[in-house]
Amino acid sequence: MIFNLLFPRRCPICDEPVKLNIIRHKPSPLPPPLVGLICPACYPKISYLAEPTCLKCGKALSQAGENAAIEFCHDCAVRSHQFDRGLALFEYPCIAGSLSRFKYKGRQEYAEYYGAEIARILGKDILAMNPECLIPVPIHQKRLRSRGYNQATVLAKVISRHLGIPVADKLVARVHATAPLKNMNLEERQDSLKSAFNLMENDVKLGTVMIVDDIFTTGSTIDAIARELRLMGVNRIYFVALSIGKG
Ligand SMILES: [Zn+2]
Ligand SMILES: [Zn+2]
User: Fold this and answer.
1) How far from 158 is each of 115, 136, 139, 142, 227, CA to CA, in Å?
2) Which ligand ends up closest to the CA of 70?
3) How far apart are CA 218 and CA 245, in angstroms?
4) H or E element, residue 239
5) In angstroms, what is the C-alpha Rg of the chain?
6) Which DSSP state fits 33?
7) Residues 63, 31: contact at Cβ < 8 Å?
8) What tens digit of pLDDT does each residue of 21-37 get?
9) Which residues contact 43 (CB under 8 A, 6 or more apart)?
10) Would you tell me how many other CB atoms lie within 10 Å of the CB of residue 67?
11) Rounded to the nearest whole angstrom, what is the distance from the C-alpha of residue 20 to the centroid of ligand 1?
12) CA of 61 to the centre of ligand 2 (A)
């Protein structure tokens, strides 16, 4: 708290120092774990993923209104994934600016809010999946040196603190630097990610794991890591993403 007074945390939405609601006449609209992590005025600007969501990747099912029987998004209906199931918190567009500062502008502190929100909203589901560890999607050594941190590791550590699940950030390494996936189609992504990841241990004795990333788009990255984990006998592979695109 003293630290917060001296160096107020920046709000993940407006990037201004979060206003500390010390003197308030009306109760804060924020749920208790979020006080001091986001401005009360910015909180309503966030949109959470609306139910129902895809039973495989966690994307919101936009067509479900007409057909309540739809369980999977179009992507997951037409192709198989290497992971078992995923969870996500935010619709990507509402958090795009925030995520970009989190990754490229050194705003590691946003992870305190992101992680607290994941724990508050998805924590029960995550714990029900019973993962033995959280595996952050690794970035290449070169990128780690220039950025100074891996945003997925920073996020995983906060989730870990809230939910008591250990972080295994040395298990998977990104051995090939890949070009940005943003402008690639699905096949190009899969191609580019082939052999991008390596397991750093030969004797992995894990049954259930949860991969952590900041954004889920096509799932190619998670699939590439899950493939390696499966080869080592990991049985149940889940992921949690801070944000996800539309299905
Ligand atoms: Zn704000
Ligand atoms: Zn899906």
Assistant:
1) 5, 12, 18, 24, 26
2) 2
3) 9
4) strand 236-244
5) 18
6) G
7) no
8) 555 556 667 888 898 99
9) 13, 29, 30, 34
10) 8
11) 11
12) 8
Helix orientation angle between 151-163 and 110-129, rounded to the nearest 10 degrees: 60
Q: How far is the CA of 75 from the centre of ligand 2 (A)?
A: 6
CATH of 47-244, one of 3.30.230, 3.40.50, 2.60.40, 3.40.1000: 3.40.50
**Residue 97, amino acid:** G
* Cα gap 178→10, rounded to integer Å: 31
Q: What would the two tokens of residue 196 be? A: 């991008």
Distance CA(61)–CA(74), nearest Å, equals 9
pLDDT digits (tens, 9 = 90+) for 149-200: 999 999 999 999 999 999 999 999 998 877 777 788 888 888 888 888 989 8
Nearest ligand, CA 13: 1
Report for 62-66, 173-177, 189-193, 205-209: range of highest mean pLDDT: 205-209
Report the distance separating Cα 26 and Cα 132, nearest Å.
42
The answer to whether 197 and 138 are in contact (CB under 8 A) is yes
The alpha carbon of 120 and the centre of ligand 1 are apart by a number of angstroms equal to 19
Domain extents in the chain? 1-45, 47-244
- Over range 49-61, report the average pLDDT: 92
